[in-house]
Amino acid sequence: MIDRAGRPARWHPAIVALHWLTLLLIVIQFLLASPMRDETRNLIERFEFYQLHKSVGLTIAAFVVLRLILRLGLPSPPPLNAGRWLRWAADAVHGGLYLCVIALPLTGFLMVSSAPVQIPTLYFGWFAIPHPIVADKATYELMRSLHDWAGDALIALGAVHLGAAVVHVLIWHDNLLRRMWFRRGGAAQN
Ligand code: HEM
Ligand code: HEM
User: Where do the TM regions start and end (predicted)?
Assistant: First the structure.
């Protein structure tokens, strides 16, 4: 269903798919962070965890770029009936989430590229992705801190975002969650 301003009632299925797929991959990234840095594990195991974390992270980056292109090219559903400040807060949180999912792969890739001990980045073991910068300890330390901060910021913003979704569903009983899901049944159902 399209309103008079040409805005659809729900998000495009490609945006929906990318939203939930990105969430799934982010959860995997956080789950991988601890075993890959666990010094009690053997080096080969840790190497595999790091490679997986790097590959999944770069896949997230590709999904985010695709999602931003679709997001800018496709019409979005109208804001739900909330006050001006709440709409502004929602936009700010969404913007912050986008910033985090851009900053994390970028700082992660620049961190491994500038690491004093150079380890190749093998994309799911298929091919090596060339590192764009040379080893440099100061850059490595900076990127490592930024990667860490961006991870914390993503958790904080993600918690606010999840909290807002819970309020919409449990208190305001609106269709917020349904419009970020796939249409079931016929066209009449929105
Ligand atoms: C959205 C994608 C990503 C997320 C959510 C993510 C998340 C994280 C988190 C939570 C940590 C642990 C930080 C800490 O506790 O100190 C971490 C560490 C790390 N990440 Fe990522 N990451 C992502 C992408 C990447 C990419 C693309 C790369 C490299 C190509 C990368 C390389 C690393 C490395 C090398 C570490 C270990 C840093 C250390 O030794 O302290 N990450 N990541
Ligand atoms: C914790 C689980 C999550 C839930 C329950 C959730 C739920 C939702 C819902 C219901 C919407 C639709 C809002 C509307 O129609 O106005 C939405 C939009 C959005 N979500 Fe999430 N989300 C979650 C995690 C995430 C994560 C981890 C990110 C980080 C990338 C994210 C980024 C966004 C963005 C940027 C939007 C705005 C629409 C867009 O530009 O794609 N969400 N989310």
Answer: 12-32, 52-74, 95-117, 153-173
103, 90 Cβ separation under 8 angstroms = no
- Ligand 1 binding pocket (C-beta < 6 A) is 26, 29-30, 33, 37, 53-54, 57-58, 60, 101, 104-105, 108-109, 111-112, 121, 144, 147-148, 151
Domains of the chain with bracketed CATH: 13-179 (1.20.950)
In the chain the first and final C-alpha atoms are separated, in Å, by: 7
Write the pLDDT tens digit of every residue in 1-13: 677 677 899 999 9
Q: What is the mean pLDDT of the chain?
A: 93
In terms of phi and psi (left: phi > 0; alpha: psi -120 to 50; beta: otherwise), the region of 88 is alpha
